[in-house]
Amino acid sequence: MQRKSLITRIGEAIDSHRTASQLLHEIHHTPQPASVLSRWHRLLPTPGSMIFTLLTISVVLWAQNVGAIALGTQMAASTSISGIPYQGRLADASGNPLTQTVNIVFRLYPSASGGAPLWEEQWTGANSVQASDGLFNVMLGSVSPIPQGVITGNNNLFLGITVGTDSEMVPRVQLGSVPFATQALTVPDGSITTAKIADGVVTKAKLDPTMSFEPAFQFGGVYVVNPHTGACQSNNPFTSGCTCPATFSSQLMSEISHGVDGFNCNGVKCYAYMCNK
Fold first, then answer.
1. What distances in angstroms separate CA 37 from CA 84, 91, 115, 170, 241, one per listed residue?
2. Residues forming beta bridges with residue 139, ordered by sequence position
3. Which residues have C-beta within 8 Å of that of residue 1, sequence separation ≥ 6?
4. Which of 5, 48, 198, 266 is deepest in the core (most CB within 10 A)?
5. Rg of the chain over CA atoms, in angstroms?
């Protein structure tokens, strides 16, 4: 028998606490020829499939964060994804849950009907699926790896299921966001570097429209004033006068002695001011 993974055991623990009323939602398929296996006319995801999926992803992400697994380097060199968790229910023609080991073949299709499968996996022999009280859990891709191109190259995927010698069940099960969440986990390095960001795509509006990108200090020119007479000895080139540009403030920069560089400071000193913000 195939050794059960940690994720499978977690799914089985959840299933053991699920009430019988949660197992009544079923997807019907067409009647099959008379045989032992044809009595299984329903194969259903349980109502808790979404919880199982979210828990699976959470456990994987937690394990990566604490260093239990290294998804980056291992998946970067791989051309297949790690797997897609799937949970279903087997019942007989009367809706009674079954407890038995069965052979199941899973296939992925790009459409709800028709067409050739993109991928196939056979859970037979030593890998046969064990159904307990009707419930079973499998990690699709653990027997036959799913090529990464199957996930990245198709916006929609539909799962075809064949139990034993019966025909493939209808309708096919449409997979949700789980494969694409798996695809996200294949990013070799979660860090964002400048090499991974195209020029011009990160704008102020994308970050925070209220954010200011002005430097801490901006220069607004220099002017010189005679403090005794108020005469403007040297204009600020930014304003053509002894003033600062709007939103700038003036700050005393230095004192200039009378006569230096031609400044008329009434025999005392003039003051040089710098504009900044």
1. 26, 10, 25, 16, 97
2. 85
3. 126, 128, 130
4. 48
5. 36
Q: How far apart are CA 227 and CA 233, in angstroms?
A: 10
Please state, in angstroms and rounded to a whole number, the distance separating the CA atoms of residues 222 and 252.
10
- Of all helices (H) and strands (E), which one includes residue 249? strand 249-257
pLDDT tens-digit map of 31-40 = 444 444 444 4
Angle at CA 51, nearest 5°, toward 47 and 52?
A: 95
CA 175 to chain centroid, in Å, comes to 17
CB distance 115 to 100 below 8 Å: no
Q: Are 163 and 142 in contact (CB under 8 A)?
A: no
Q: Which residues pair with 252 in a beta bridge?
A: 273
The residue written with tokens 């900044």 in the block is 276
Whole-number pLDDT of residue 7: 55
Kindly give the residue spans of alpha helices, DSSP state H, lying in 100-172.
148-152
SS3 call for 268: coil
Assign 61 to helix, strand or coil: helix
Cα–Cα distance measured from residue 43 to residue 31, given in angstroms and rounded to the nearest whole number: 12
- State the distance between the two ends of the chain, measured CA to CA, in whole angstroms: 74
Tokens of 44: 């259903």
How would residue 129 be classed by pLDDT, with cut points 50, 70 and 90? Answer: very high
Q: Is 125 left (phi over 0), alpha (psi -120 to 50) or beta?
A: left
Contact 30, 170 (CB under 8 A): yes
pLDDT at position 260 is 82
E strands, 42-152, where? 42-44, 84-91, 100-102, 104-109, 119-123, 129-131, 135-140
Average pLDDT of the residues in 205-214: 68
